[in-house]
Specification:
Elements (H helix, E strand, L loop, with lengths): L22 H25 L1 H21 L8 H27 L3 H22 L5 H26 L2 H7 L3 H31 L17
Helix pairs in contact: 1-2, 1-7, 2-3, 3-4, 4-5, 4-7, 5-7
């Protein structure tokens, strides 16, 4: 599937990639963000605390995002446009998510963080695209996909890090612990990617009613 095909005048909405077509690169970006925790988590906890770890992970997410995902954007300058949409949306998501997490922690904190973070990310994305049509549907689908990836990834991580996981794979605790954290990042990335792909695809579609409106410009 082409990633950068556009008409001479700007963009061609017929070449917009399907919602799931960029899950692979979002998967890679998510692995990068979780790698901060997997490989340097102890250092951050000792030297900067949990907030420092989250800030570093957010920085890696946003830095890699544009390089890997800008083909999702239908614009003559997709990288610039991508950062203008993604950075404020992801920072809104991160702030909201961390707020609920630090306040309530496991259980209710995670679910509320997932819901409010999804709403923040999708709403800000729609605002930056200048298109809030179908925003409620996009929030719901983003929340479902994100939650599936996050909670399934968490269960997989805890299983891999358990004695049963160590016995099954025959690895040392430290090595398996790193793999367990990266596996969480992988599933989180797939869920986030599915939700983001749908939202970006939806917000870049032309208004279906615009073609039916009479033109106010003079004929050429």
């Amino acid at each position: 599937m082409p990633t950068r095909s556009r008409r001479e005048a700007g963009v061609d909405f017929q070449t917009c990639q399907s919602p799931g077509s960029k899950q692979t690169v979002i998967f890679e970006r998510s692995i990068g963000g979780f790698a901060v925790w997997a490989f340097a988590g102890k250092w951050f906890y000792v030297n900067t605390g949990e907030a420092g770890l989250y800030a570093a992970s957010t920085g890696v997410f946003t830095s890699l995002a544009g390089l890997l995902m800008h083909p999702l954007i239908l614009d003559p300058r997709p990288l610039t446009r991508f950062y203008r949409v993604f950075v404020p949306a992801f920072f809104a998501y991160a702030i909201v998510w961390c707020g609920f997490w630090f306040l309530l922690r496991f259980g209710a904190g995670e679910w509320l963080a997932s819901l409010a973070g999804s709403a923040a990310f999708v709403a800000v994305s729609g605002w930056r695209f200048g298109n809030l049509r179908s925003v409620v549907k996009a929030i719901i689908l983003f929340f479902v996909a994100l939650s599936l990836g996050y909670f399934a990834g968490g269960k997989l991580m805890y299983f891999l890090a358990s004695p049963e996981g160590a016995e099954m794979f025959g690895m040392g605790k430290a090595q398996l612990g790193t793999i367990a954290k990266l596996s969480w990042g992988a599933l989180f990335g797939l869920g986030f990617g599915a939700g983001l792909g749908y939202a970006y695809y939806t917000f870049q579609q032309p208004d279906p009613h615009s073609a039916q409106r009479p033109s106010t410009s003079a004929p050429a």
